[in-house]
Design brief:
This protein is α/β, with parallel strands linked by helices and 236 residues long. It is built from 10 helices and 7 strands. The strands form 2 sheets. A 5-stranded parallel beta sheet has the order 3-4-2-1-5, with helices on both faces. Helix 3 packs across helix 5, helix 4 crosses helix 5 and helix 8 packs parallel to helix 10. The longest helix is centred in the middle third of the chain and has 24 residues. About 2% of the residues have low confidence. It binds glutamic acid. The site of glutamic acid has 15 residues, from helix 4 and strand 4.
């Protein structure tokens, strides 16, 4: 895997809320972000294009707006996303500025990856941003997406974006190391599966439906992302 990562010309990295935001305090894990952005800057200096898909807007925003309910109403999670997104963008900008790397924010809805005209437009903008040497930071446009048109998870969004820009490698960073034969938090017999060459029904069955408190994906959406990425010839 690390060889594939080294050789990739264009990499999409998806960063999950549970890594970026401290689950106890609801604040950004700045040192962790800085360490990851050091790696991103290294990739850039080896002439690899890097695009980030970052979650964390809702997790950060709910803290700053004081929204403590475990499950938020749609309008409250959209308000949290609006308050958190600006903090998120600022954090990436500051962290990559240490390396002189420009950052650009793109917020996408489901339509932007499905309707031809919007798809082409988003693709052109992302391609231009990469050509100009910046690191695009993508998230779902949570503040306008309604329940019906939401992706809801950034795993599949990241796979769609990877396909859109012709990335050869997609990395999903999560609080779990990878795929297990069962949920390792519930089953101590669960075995780690280091490589999957094809998404079969048996692989799909290994993915439960749960995620963490602020993250929404869990393993099921990661398997769907793997399928989408694979169809576009992108290793995940
Ligand atoms: N778009 C959501 C956010 O930024 C996260 C979705 C996800 O957890 O994948 O908070």
């Amino acid at each position: 895997m690390s060889e594939r990562l080294d050789k990739a010309k264009r990499i999409v990295i998806k960063i999950g809320s549970s890594l970026l935001v401290d689950q106890q305090t609801g604040t950004l894990r700045r040192n962790w972000l800085d360490a990851l952005m050091d790696d991103v800057a290294d990739c850039r200096s080896r002439a690899q294009d890097v695009l980030l898909v970052s979650s964390g807007a809702i997790a950060l925003g709910r803290h700053s707006l004081g929204l403590t309910a475990r499950t938020l109403r749609l309008e409250d999670s959209q308000a949290a996303a609006a308050a958190g997104q600006i903090r998120l963008a600022h954090a990436y900008q500051e962290s990559l500025a240490r390396h002189g790397v420009p950052v650009a924010q793109i917020l996408l809805t489901g339509d932007d990856t499905e309707r031809r005209r919007r798809y082409l437009n988003a693709r052109n903008t992302l391609t231009a941003l990469l050509a100009h040497g910046s690191v695009p930071v993508v998230n779902e446009n949570d503040t306008v997406a309604t329940e019906e048109i939401r992706f809801g998870d950034n795993d599949r969004l990241a796979a769609r974006v990877a396909a859109m820009i012709g990335a050869d490698c997609l990395v999903l960073l999560s609080d779990i190391e990878g795929l297990y034969s069962a949920d390792p938090r519930k089953n101590d017999q669960a075995e780690f599966i280091s490589e999957v060459s094809e998404i079969t029904l048996a692989i799909e069955a290994m993915a439960g439906a749960t995620g963490s408190h602020d993250g929404s994906g869990g393993m099921a959406t990661k398997i769907q992302a793997a399928r989408l990425a694979g169809q576009a010839g992108c290793t995940m």
